[in-house]
C-alpha cells in the first residue's frame, strides 16, 4: 500500500527534511539518553503528548549520569533498538559531558552512537547548558550527521532546585522548541550557532 514510499528510500522530490508529521501514524518513537530525558516528566512528558497526538507509539528510557562515552560503549542503546524497533530515535545526551576537559576526544563516541542508530530517522537534542560548556555541543554538532542536531544551548528554561534539570514547565517549553524544528525540518547546519556559545557567560 501507501507505506512503501515511507521507507528509507527517497521519494520524489528527494528532500532530506520530511514533510510535517504525516508519516508518524503507526510509527514507534524512542526517546532515550541521560536524566535530561526527564523520566516520565519534563521534556519526555511534553514530547510524548506531541508524538502520541500524531498517532505514534512513544517509548522512553533514561539513564542517570550517562555520558556520551558510556552510552557508546555499553549495550543499553543496542538493547533498546532491538527491543522496541523504533522508526524514529530522539536522543537527549551530553549534559554529563558539558564540562569535560577534552570534549574533542568524544567525537568518535558521537559517531559510534549515530552509526548504531542508523539507518533510522534520528534527532540528537543537545544539552540545555546552564553554564558555558567546554565544547561538547560543537563536537556533537560536527559529528552527528546523518542525525539532525537540535541545539539547546543557553535556552531560558524553568529549572528544578538543582538549577540544572528543567521542571515540567521548562520541559514543555523545551519540547515546544524542538517540535517547531521537528515539524518544519529546520535544523541549523553544522557550525551554524558557534559564536552564540561565547556569549553564554554574560
Q: If you had to describe this structure to a student in words, what would you say it looks like?
A:
This protein is α/β, with parallel strands linked by helices. Helices cover 31% and strands 12% of the residues. It contains 6 helices and 5 strands, in the order βαβααβαβαβα. The protein has helices at 42-53, 68-73, 76-84, 107-117, 136-143, 168-184; strands spanning 28-33, 57-62, 88-92, 121-125, 148-150. The chain has a 5-stranded parallel beta sheet, with helices on both faces. α1 packs across α6 (168-184) and α4 crosses α5. Residues 1-19 and 190-202 have low confidence and may be disordered.
List keywords for this structure.
202 residues; 5-stranded parallel β-sheet; globular; disordered N terminus; disordered C terminus
What pattern of helices and strands is seen along the backbone? EHEHHEHEHEH
Please, how many helices? 6
Radius of gyration over C-alpha positions, nearest whole angstrom:
16 Å
Strand fraction equals 5-15%
Biggest sheet features: 5 strands, parallel
Helix content: 25-40%
Structural class: alpha/beta
Say what oligomer this is. single chain
Strand order of the largest sheet: 2-1-3-4-5
Question: Could you list the spans in which at least 5 consecutive residues all have pLDDT below 50?
Answer: 1-19, 190-202
Outline, from the CA principal axes? globular
Overall mean pLDDT stands at: 87
Amino- and carboxy-terminal Cα gap? 55 Å
- Strand tally, please? 5
